Amino acid sequence: MAVSLTVNGATRSVPAEPDTPLLYVLRNDLELNGAKFGCGLAQCGACTVLVNGQAMRSCVTPIDALAGAEVVTLEGLGTAEKPHPLQHAFIAEQAAQCGYCISGMIMTAKALLDRNPRPSERDVREALAANLCRCGTHNRIVRAILRAANEIGRT
Ligand code: FES
Ligand code: FES
């Protein structure tokens, strides 16, 4: 059957069963490969996207729960020519090693900055505590998020 959902501002119709995880639809049907499959069990955060502005783990979110919802993925934040301040800050701070966790980190950080534009370092660490990075890039990631908050605050 076909399921309709709104991703990055566009309504998309995909042939999928209602219990299909959003992550599979994003990657396999819509060719949006920012969100990653890490654990598939809501344990690592690599698949995090925004649903109605909230950070959600797309690996355990069935698409039939998304009727009328606005989904935003990493691809919806900015472009190579005009990156979002978070994307710019992650590049400026070189806040990645393998990069596998970074989409989920940025989307979780986006949700944080939307509800708390001036987070402390502690706020950032708490918000990101459940996002795993096996490369140990956490300190650079925290610096990048604080840098992005400063940049957004100046504009
Ligand atoms: S792949 Fe979704 S939380 Fe790990
Ligand atoms: S940069 Fe490799 S898992 Fe985070």
Could you walk me through the main structural features you see in this protein, from its secondary elements to its overall organization?
Helix content is 35%, strand content 15%. It contains 5 helices and 5 strands, in the order ββαβββαααα. Strands 2-1-5-3-4 form a 5-stranded mixed β-sheet, sandwiched between helices. Strand 1 (2-7) and strand 2 (10-15) form a beta hairpin. Helix 2 (85-92) crosses helix 5 (138-154). The termini are far apart. The model has no long low-confidence stretch (mean pLDDT 96). One FE2/S2 (inorganic) cluster (FES) binds at residues 37-40, 42-47, 57, 59.
Indicate the percent of residues in helices: 25-40%
- Largest beta-sheet characterization: 5 strands, mixed
Low-confidence stretches: none
List bound small molecules: FE2/S2 (inorganic) cluster
Beta percentage is: 5-15%
Helix count from the secondary structure assignment: 5
Q: If you average the pLDDT, what whole number results? A: 96
The helix/strand order is: EEHEEEHHHH
Termini gap: 45 Å
- The count of strands amounts to 5
List the helices and strands and how they pair.
Layout (H helix, E strand, L loop, with lengths): L1 E6 L2 E6 L6 H8 L18 E4 L2 E4 L12 E3 L12 H8 L9 H14 L5 H7 L10 H17 L1
Parallel strand pairs: 1-5
Antiparallel strand pairs: 1-2, 3-4, 3-5
Helix pairs in contact: 2-5
The structure holds FE2/S2 (inorganic) cluster (2 copies).
Essential attributes:
5 helices; binds FE2/S2 (inorganic) cluster; 155 residues; 5 strands; globular; alpha+beta; five-stranded mixed β-sheet
Structure summary:
With 155 residues, the chain is of the alpha+beta class. It has helices at 22-29, 85-92, 102-115, 121-127, 138-154, and strands at 2-7, 10-15, 48-51, 54-57, 70-72. A 5-stranded mixed β-sheet has the order 2-1-5-3-4, sandwiched between helices.
